[in-house]
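Q: Convert this sequence to structure tokens.
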Amino acid sequence: MFAKEMLEEAAQKIGAAIQETPLKDVSKNAKTAISSTMARFDLVTREEFEIQQQMIEHLCQEIATLRQEIEQLRQ
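A:
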């Protein structure tokens, strides 16, 4: 729902930009409006996402190892 509201806001900004400026500046204003709206999303790059995913997988493996060690110590 949040993304829908952000996209609607971007569309409104684009519409306002078209009405307030000459047609030749529409592309520039549209890019600016979309960029400013997208900047408000808390996005990460694909590379950052993959790094975080690898870190989580590594931590899950460490947790599994620690659980096995704890189980062995209990016995």
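Residues 62 and 68 are 10 Å apart (CA to CA).
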